[in-house]
Fold this protein.
Amino acid sequence: MVLQVIASVFIVIAIAIFFGLTPQRITDDLLSIIKPNDTMKDKAKNIRGNKKRHGIYKFLMRMKGALDATGKSRQFTIAMTSSLILFAAGAVVCIMIGNLFLIPAVSVALALLPFMYISSTLSYYDKNTKLEMETALSIITTSYERCDDIVSAVRENIPIIKPPLREIFMAFEGEATAVSSNIQRALYNLREKVDDDIFREWVDTLIRCQDDRTLKDTLQPVVQKLADVRIVNSELKTMLASARNEYWMMVLLVVGNVPLLYLLNKDWFHTLLYTTPGKIVCGICGIVILITAMFMKKFTKPIEYKG
């Protein structure tokens, strides 16, 4: 069995070399498969905001954009290629231990490992981006209330705004001054460059301010929402960490029962690992752990404002 697996690995490597499969090409092919093929009706609904994009594709594009902004775009290609390799490796491992029912759980879990690692590193980036957004919007709002000109307010604060927001506001300032004098169109373009509901609400308020300058007083309460979300997340941090720790403790108890069963009753251990009903039970447990882990990550992540 081991020799067959090694031979299969060499065959796969030879096929990859023969067809010129590079990590970038593998990434492009995978994204083309995942990319939603929406009709014109679906695209119209997306523009109006009535239909959300495909979750997996949106998650990957958000991760790719964050890595591009941090100058680590190559890591996305490596993650996609590593995910595919680990998915196949999980299937091979399950075949070697003789339990085909574990293939879905093990393969998917291994395939998610590169993205989990990148997601954990990007959480620090997201946190700093939120803090910088709060600072940038606050100082720009203060300047706008004083000078009554959003382009001048952005221009005078660009030197103290940190990346990646600096590039976004520089593009807005350049479009509003060099490309077109239509401030509202430039604001609409600015609105779509940051995937955050509070930021979009702030830009929407700015757009309304171009027609009614008395609405300037509503900008600061919008910016204050960023501070409110940050404070709530700080208060919930310990509680959410406790829930995650309890979950992983339960998973450890479930997985730890397998070697414990070997010490308590070898017949039950043999039934669990070497009979078809036992293998099915292991496969079901693996799928349940995988699904509940995804829900745990979803429900214990920092909260976000939804307008």
